[in-house]
Every structure is written in C-alpha cells, then in structure tokens.
Amino acid sequence: MAAGWVAALKLVPWGDVLEAAPQILQAARKLIGATRKGAEEAAAGTLVDGAALPPVAQQLEHLHQRVARLEQEQLESAALIQSLAEQNARVVQAVDALRARNQRLLAAVAALALACIGLMAWALRQ
Asked: Partners of 25 in the beta sheet?
C-alpha cells in the first residue's frame, strides 16, 4: 500500500508546485495583511484622534478607497484560488493516472497468477 503512495507522489509535478509555492505564500500573506489593515481601519473609523466624525465628503472618499482595496483583494483572492485549483487539478490527474495504472497492474498480476497455476497444474500432470 505504501508503494502506491510513493508512486502517487512521484507523479505529482513537484517542480511546478514548488515553483508556485512562494507566489502563493506571498499572496496569502498580502491578503491576510490587507484584511487585518482594513479591519483596524474600520474599527478606528468611528473616531479620529478622539474628535468627532470627519465630514461626509471625507467619509465617502474613505469608503471609496476601502471599496477599491476590497475589490483588489478580491481579485488577488480569485487569482490565488485559481492557482490552487489548477494545482489541485494536476494532483487529481496524477491520482487518476495512478488508479488506471494500478488497475492494469492488478489485471497483469491476476493473469500471471493464473498462468503460474496453470503451469503448476500442467507440471504436476506430467
């Protein structure tokens, strides 16, 4: 059973996975940092240095900026998810190829076992 896992791991394009890993990690860190920054700004948005709320025009501009940042984060998230989905698809293809290979190997082993039993029966009759 362990040999099957080893074979499955050999079929995974690890070069591509390792090549994309830093980009995915950087995007994830950037996304988490932007999310934390947006949450801190939202919490601090009600009061500015203990003063009253800024004028409506400033609040509106701030909201426009936040919406633009959220849209950018959403695009980055979508790119990250797409990258992960592509890697997942490659892993699924590799596992599917292994499953097909395993079925062929099982059929070959069964045929060889039948051939050995047949040869043993033939040898015992002689």
From this structure: none
Question: Tell me, what's the pLDDT at 47?
Answer: 47
* Amino acid, single-letter form, for residue 17: V
Q: Model confidence over 45-66: pLDDT tens digits?
A: 554 455 566 788 888 999 999 9
Q: Kindly report the pTM of this predicted structure.
A: 0.46
Q: How far apart are CA 84 and CA 17, in angstroms?
A: 10
Q: What is the DSSP string of 30-82?
A: HHHHHHHHHHHHHHHSS-BTTBPPPPHHHHHHHHHHHHHHHHHHHHHHHHHHH
Cα angle 46, 51, 53 (rounded to 5 degrees) comes to 40
Buried-state track 12-28, b at ≥16 Cβ within 10 A, e below 16: beeeeeeeeeeeeeeee
The more confident residue out of 39 and 64 is: 64
Q: How far apart are CA 76 and CA 72, in angstroms?
A: 6
Question: What span, in angstroms and rounded, lies between the C-alpha atoms of 67 and 42?
Answer: 12
